[in-house]
Amino acid sequence: MDQQHLDGKVVERGKEFFRSISGEAPSIFNKGWWTGKVMDWAMQNEDFKVQLFRFVDVLPYLNTSESLLRHIREYFATEDADIPPVLKWGAGKAGIGGALTAKLMGMTIRSNIEGMARQFIIGDNSKEAVKGLAKLRKDGFTFTVDLLGEATVSEEESEAYAQGYHEVVDAIAREQEKWKALPGNGPVEGFDWGATPKVNVSIKPSALYSQAKPVDVEGSVRGILSRLVPIYRKVVAMGGFLCIDMEQLKYKEMTLELFKRLRSDPEFRHYPHLSIVLQAYLRDTEKDLEDLLHWARSEKLPIGIRLVKGAYWDYETVIAKQNGWEIPVWTDKPESDIAYEKLAHRILENSDIVYFACASHNVRTIAAVMETALALNVPEHRYEFQVLYGMAEPVRKGLKNVAGRVRLYCPYGELIPGMAYLVRRLLENTANESFLRQSFAEGAALERLLENPQKTLHRLLAARPEPRAVEPGPGGLPPFTNDAMIDFTVPDNRKAFVEALADVRSRFGQTVPLYIGGRDVTTADLIPTTNPAKPAEVVASICQAGRLEIDDAIAAAKKAALTWRDTSPADRAAYLRRAADICRKRIWELSAWQVVEVGKQWDQAYHDVTEGIDFLEYYAREMLRLGAPRRMGRAPGEHNHLFYQPKGIAAVIAPWNFPFAIAIGMASAAIVTGNPVIFKPSSISSRIGYNLAEVFREAGLPEGVFNYCPGRSSIMGDYLVEHPDISLICFTGSMEVGLRIQEKAAKVQPGQRQCKRVIAEMGGKNATIIDDDADLDEAVLQVLYSAFGFQGQKCSACSRVIVLNAIYDRFVERLVKAASSIHIGPSEDPSNYMGPVADATLQKNVSDYIRIAEEEGRVLLKRTDLPAEGCYVPLTIVGDIRPEHRIAQEEIFGPVLAVMRAATFDEALSIANGTRFALTGAVFSRSPEHLDKARREFRVGNLYLNKGSTGALVERQPFGGFAMSGVGSKTGGPDYLSQFMDPRVVTENTMRRGFTPIDEDDDWIV
What we know:
It is a single chain. The protein is an alpha/beta fold. Helices cover 45% and strands 16% of the residues. It contains 33 helices and 31 strands. The strands form seven sheets. Strands 1-2-3-4-5-6-7-8 form an eight-stranded parallel beta barrel, surrounded by seven helices. Strands 23-24-25-22-21-27-28 form a seven-stranded mixed beta sheet, sandwiched between helices. A six-stranded mixed beta sheet has the order 18-17-16-19-20-30, sandwiched between helices. α24 runs parallel beside α25. The chain is globular, with a radius of gyration of 32 Å. It starts with a helix and ends in a 17-residue tail after the last strand.
């Protein structure tokens, strides 16, 4: 096929298309209407666009005139707000509380925005939807109907979503006999265009199973199919067509797999009217297409494919950047257009087995598909065109004029999910790269609109400035970046976890020695560490250090101390970076140990290790930054230099809940600052603690610099803390133990030469506030994860959720249903959301608190469907908790969540601040004023706005609190290392006999 000749045909076809709709524009760009004026302003002003879209998003939650007017004022009436005249009067009037004009203007704004949403939605319910669909058919268009509300957080919501499809399919079934088939030249009588069934249904599969997740593809596919098969059976019975939508990348693999299973199911093999959506903006779609074509031919099954550009570009790009992944989408719009045309060509080449739905508003793309089909002699009845209902009226009209076969994608449903859909559509309309915007709002030249996207891309790249050079980090190293999060959409990552778990299981039961002075040391005193999901399984037998071994370790550390102190910061940093490389090499094994020894879920275990790697890399760079002497002042005739020296021997006492990350973070901070370490891991996680010894030994750390000394606290705990040669104690654990350490460390022992420095992180009683305008789709899932991820055993876990009265019932109902839906069982099984607590002692402690919760409040949920074996406790949510209750004040460290009411946001803040702790907190709100107030007045070390309270990342979110949550600066932050060192200043008088050299940076006479 001659591409140049084809391009000429495409341009002519495109011009014909534009001629057929000359003078028309989508109603959303019509400046004679309120909507058009507002959209025009949004395209001129990015800040206003952001505020507008956020206001649209929150609007359905503003159920009173007071809340509506307050949000109008907050979003649009600020001093620096640049808003269109059509909104300016209303925003100003909104400041007049209770005034009739304000209420009227608020109602007008609400009415206009809700009208904008309904422009894209065929109906609020099935009755309205069917009526709207019938009207479309009278106008010569056919449809595919889609139910809004795909953000299901529980199995009850997933079931309701499925029932919504049954309802609309039943309603259509009763009406379709009245509909005449749309005329066409296809071979099948009674079908639209003689080619395809009159009824077409689209469905987003993830909504059918609330527990769908990429780490568990098989379980997700089974869960989705359990609800999808009955819907498809009904569609087949009525002679309809079903299209399975493609959503975010995390669902792609399971979506492709369930499509194949449904299409090849013996019950449905005879029925060809099933299609799947592919997204041209994904870089891997070409491979996915080839796999589908190969599968269809090998199975001898005709299929349908709807090709779209893709609707989640911003989401996929942001998530990839946040998580350190390769960006999965094409980053320049012309690249997606190029990919679309290439994929369309390949689909049309296989028209004998693939029915093609070209879904696009881009006239160039549509013309390219039409001309390619003609060049390949593809019969018209083997492909169709699709556009979004309400989005591109001129395009659908032009398509009907030019192609004749147009299907409208018609969402129906309630206003709240409708607003989320509206925001996506508005983003598409107003994006700089939007074809509709360029065509109908900006009047771009036809030649540009219809040119080959390869040429567009070339021009774009040629005009792009050179990327900014990356500034090197300390010591010339690359700037710090967090290690990548685990991406379970990559099958090899899931496979690696399975293999690593098998590997560590093969090493169960080994005896783990101490590591002192560069050599292994065994003792007769052993403590077994066990699998909390199966306590009879001994993970390892851990040698225990007594006082004699602590003396030996301190002697080894003292012997190493002087040499290590004088080792250059660059060399000390190099050891940490070697250790980081070793951890990356062993990451699957290091993660697997955490799954079996403390019961962490796969993602949590992996991210514990990546956090440890981050600490190693970040502290290495921080030591290079702090290690060079710094001149103080610029007075001539003297040199003043500030520099640091290590404090001495550090006792590092680590917790079991982050047994690798926190342990290696504390240890590496001490080591890189020149302090030898005596490391005492928790007895619950001592096998994981031994991983540190293995890593530092492989990194070549000098003998005595790191000493692994697990031991019984009753025998050697106080002895280690009080030892006169210990200069520094770095601890993470409970408040009670942390306070005891501080008390013991404060007493000077015989022979002690320094005040002991204590750095202690001691936990929290973390609160999440749910404002009356919170996005519950987000808030419910984030609270669920913050409260019950890793069984609520994080110091940052949400243990109190404070909900404003206006939204209390809705939030609690959805939260309880979501918590009722998650799977509980061994963490080795990735389908399980929650596992056992870390050991039997913790199991008893949490169980005691659950009894207290039952006495103090009203149990909203207590999950008793637990495995018979293992250290499980019931996931418990308790309501009617007051601030003075023990459940609202004491740290539990388990899956127990207290739900509390607040009448106002101010009261919620007061409750949140009303404990001895100040570690983490979270607020879910779409009120700019409330978010600002939370920044000022929610007094915790780490505050998260519209995000769960867990998951701090090194450097991005330095972690740590105050009050009874700890003493010392934040881990993973710029002040942390200075705590491990003593600053010194040396002043030299450079004047001799009235003469002094003048340095370049001296404060000298100009």
